[in-house]
Design goal:
The chain is about 45% helix and about 15% strand. By secondary structure, it is an alpha/beta fold. Helix 2 packs across helix 3. The protein binds adenosine monophosphate and zinc ion.
Length: about 475
Amino acid sequence: MPLYFFNTMNRSREEFRPLKENEAGMYTCGPTVYNFAHIGNFRAYIFEDLLRRTLKYFGYKVIQVMNLTDVDDKTIRDSQKAGISLNEYTAKYKKAFFEDLAFLNVEPAEHYPAATDHIPEMIKLIQMLQEKGFAYKAEDGSIYYSIAKFPEYGKLAKIDMENQKSGVRVKTDEYAKDAVADFALWKAWDEKDGDVAWESPWGKGRPGWHIECSAMSMKYLGNTFDIHTGGIDNMFPHHEDEIAQSEAANGCRYVNYWLHCAHLIVNGEKMSKSLGNFFTLKDLKEKNFTGPEIRWILLSAHYRKKLNFTFEDCEKAKALLKKFADFFLRLKTVEKAGKISDKMSEIVKSAQNSFKDAIGDDLNISEAVAALFGLEREANKLMDSGEITKEEASLILEQFKDFDKVLGVLNVDGQEEKIPEEIEELAGRRQAARKSKNFAEADAIRDELKRKGWVLEDTAKGPRLKKIS
Ligand code: AMP
Ligand code: ZN
């Protein structure tokens, strides 16, 4: 079955044809580890996870690379504010990032290269650009990319280069489309950088943000690779600059398919740290939303459509996943003997085909999910009239596990949720308080547990923690 993606480069839906048969190389711009990621960022990472899982569902071996930007204007600024070293500062947010990915059931990438571990590769790439005449040194010792030397500059963001002034420079990593300019490849050290600096042929300094991704994608995926993704805000200048650097240095096409997701918005505005309108996973956990519920919300709108975040939708996701959990339980209670009928095989096969067709069509999630609802409705009807056998119920459950290889939200086996450390600790403290007859404290801890969505049930084997559904 062919797989289709909307390629931002050509603004068109195209059949996916990988460079190597049955293998897909994919580069995804990762987090700048200067703070906790917010759920807007996770919309991008979940879209990429859906893409990765879809490629696997279609039989591809995926080599995914996600970089960690652990040196840039923001990480330097905030580590200095905190009065600690850059490494110490970013380590905390790297750790939190991986915990968050696990909480959202995002499959790990094959490589997570950190920028600070690849400075020699970046220096080498800048040297190549200099040798080929695409880079020049400015008065302060910084090295800039000359966009006038690369006639195709602007081809991704569709910028009309005719009316652009040449020789204008920008040193900051982020700038708007109307500020098209030569951008920094290597930033000469200045006092603001403190002790963050590496030796280079141009003196002490540090890399620009864009060169990180060109150098690291090249190292792990080669000069040309299949897929590059990110949020739509990455398209300009970041991805445009990556193309300019990589194609000028290597003399070949950088990426075959560019995929960008639209933003998660709140009241019509992009969720972002700078606007302060963001929620982290911690915020949502405190409101008792689970990983699957948050994943469902971020997953359930097509990746190229803006997604408006509301707590109403969080509640709807909760109810919906509960409905699926009840449905799976119901299927597990079917005892009727008998073989799988042709009619049932047909129903299940057709649901799988619709699902695969839809998800393979540029990740059409709404239609893919409609296939799940259709199968659920049909199965419930047949259970109502007692027409399903135990074997057929198992077949349906297996099909939902198959859907979940792509969706990663259903928990068909009904495994109990892992109890967070903090909850275990509170439960332990409550037991201790009860033992020492400090009932006021025991009750206060019980209330706190309840607020966090857990109850302690007394069982024959002692108290047991249970999630409030
Ligand atoms: P950053 O850490 O700002 O470099 O962003 C990491 C990733 O999250 C990038 O791919 C961004 O495009 C993406 N991103 C940031 N804000 C949002 C948002 N509100 N909705 C979707 N993606 C976002
Ligand atoms: Zn990048």
